[in-house]
């Protein structure tokens, strides 16, 4: 078992590095209101978080991460900008016995309100690269913004694009939808039968014939859902060329400079991604200015799709290639959309990341440092 005192000392060292870079220290309650987290992540969060009940505050969760409460604090302060750092325990359920802890310390660095967004992203990445440099980790980067722009550029209905973007962080569901919207897989037979009835009898009649309303959906909501399915069934399939372009983007794994060149070529056929590609270009220039070798920096277009649900732009992670059994030592990225949700319509540019000091300690001791 890892010595907690040593882990905390490592955490304090990491936080001191971030305060030395100009961040102010902030704290967050260990018990967090479940309602906010459920609104953000849906019921899926229950499988990962420890849930409890308070007689006065209602349903609560042991803090699954720091970003949400820290962003809430920043948005509540109204004009709060600048960099912050935090340190403390987070709690995540694990489905299997193994090396992954259900309670561990995170140290984070977040910066808010930077006018030059690409420069802020480069600075955050460079800080994590510097503090982790003794461990010789592999850095991976990606850009959720390019994927979102690619979906938005498809020649299909807004409803279909919204569904694809909603499931971007669930690759299997995303693939099933894309295959169906592209005509590569059939509509489920049960839905086909329902739609045939609705075409003949009308959506309202089918809803009425379903029997008494049970559960949370009203009769009007069921009717509206059937009408939406009818409208979707009338949509032509997404063209094979556009599906192929999206597949190409999703599978792109290259060094950053080579990936940029490929994305520029793709933007000729899918111009909606051009602004995001331009931002990537500016980011690489800013990273180079921070001393990062962008010619050796890996870029994976799909990076972050399974673990970074609230990020909406640049994403990054640092890994120990000799210890693939370990989770990422550090992860981070841009999450402007999260500030908009938690700020009730007000938005701040925001980018940051977290590092796990127990992994830093493990790798440091293994290297004999």
- Low-confidence stretches are none
SSE order? HEEHEEHEEHEHHHHHHHEHHEEEHEH
Strand content: 15-25%
Largest sheet composition: 9 strands, mixed
Strand arrangement within the widest β-sheet reads: 1-5-6-12-11-10-7-9-8
Structural class: alpha+beta
Overall pLDDT: 85
Number of strands: 12
- The dominant shape is globular
**Assembly classification:** single chain
Helix content: 40-55%
Rg calc: 23 Å
First CA to last CA: what distance? 19 Å
Q: Counting H and I runs of at least 4 residues, what is the number of helices?
A: 15
Written overview of the protein:
By secondary structure, the chain is of the alpha+beta class. The chain has a domain at 184-236. The protein has 15 helices and twelve strands. It has helices at residues 4-20, 34-41, 67-76, 117-131, 144-152, 158-166, 171-181, 189-201, 203-209, 219-233, 240-250, 256-269, 274-289, 336-342, 357-366, and strands at residues 24-25, 31-33, 51-54, 58-62, 82-91, 103-112, 138-143, 253-255, 298-300, 314-319, 330-334, 350-355. The strands form two sheets. Strands 1-5-6-12-11-10-7-9-8 form a nine-stranded mixed beta sheet. Strand 3 and strand 4 form a beta hairpin. The protein starts with a helix and ends with a helix. The model has no long low-confidence stretch (mean pLDDT 85).
């Amino acid at each position: 078992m890892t010595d907690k005192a040593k882990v905390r000392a490592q955490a304090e060292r990491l936080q001191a590095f971030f305060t030395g870079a100009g961040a102010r220290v902030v704290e967050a309650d260990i018990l967090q209101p479940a309602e906010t987290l459920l609104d953000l992540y849906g019921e899926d969060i229950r499988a990962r978080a420890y849930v409890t009940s308070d007689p006065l505050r209602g349903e609560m969760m042991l803090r699954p991460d720091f970003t949400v409460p820290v962003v809430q604090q920043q948005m509540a302060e109204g004009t709060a900008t600048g960099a912050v750092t935090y340190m403390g325990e987070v709690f995540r359920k694990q489905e299997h016995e193994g090396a992954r802890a259900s309670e561990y310390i995170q140290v984070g660095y977040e910066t808010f309100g930077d006018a030059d967004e690409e420069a802020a992203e480069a600075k955050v990445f460079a800080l994590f690269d510097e503090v982790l440099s003794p461990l010789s980790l592999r850095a991976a980067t990606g850009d959720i913004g390019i994927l979102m722009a690619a979906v938005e550029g498809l020649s299909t209905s807004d409803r279909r694009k919204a569904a694809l973007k909603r499931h971007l962080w669930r690759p299997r569901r995303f693939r099933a939808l894309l295959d169906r919207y592209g005509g590569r897989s059939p509509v489920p037979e049960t839905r086909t039968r329902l739609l045939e009835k609705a075409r003949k009898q009308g959506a309202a009649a089918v809803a009425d014939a379903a029997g008494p309303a049970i559960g949370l959906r009203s009769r009007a909501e069921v009717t509206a859902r059937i009408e939406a399915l009818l409208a979707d069934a009338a949509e032509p399939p997404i063209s094979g060329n556009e599906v192929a372009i999206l597949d190409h983007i999703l599978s792109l794994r290259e060094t950053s400079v080579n990936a940029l060149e490929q994305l520029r070529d793709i933007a000729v056929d899918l111009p909606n991604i051009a602004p995001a590609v331009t931002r990537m270009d500016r980011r690489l220039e800013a990273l180079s200015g921070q001393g990062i070798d962008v010619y050796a920096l890996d870029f994976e277009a799909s990076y972050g799709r399974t673990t970074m649900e609230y990020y909406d732009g640049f994403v990054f992670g640092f890994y120990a290639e000799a210890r693939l059994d370990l989770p990422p030592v550090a992860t981070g990225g841009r999450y402007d959309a999260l500030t908009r949700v938690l700020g009730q319509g007000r938005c701040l540019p925001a980018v940051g990341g977290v590092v796990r000091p127990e992994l830093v300690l493990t790798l440091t001791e293994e290297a004999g440092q």
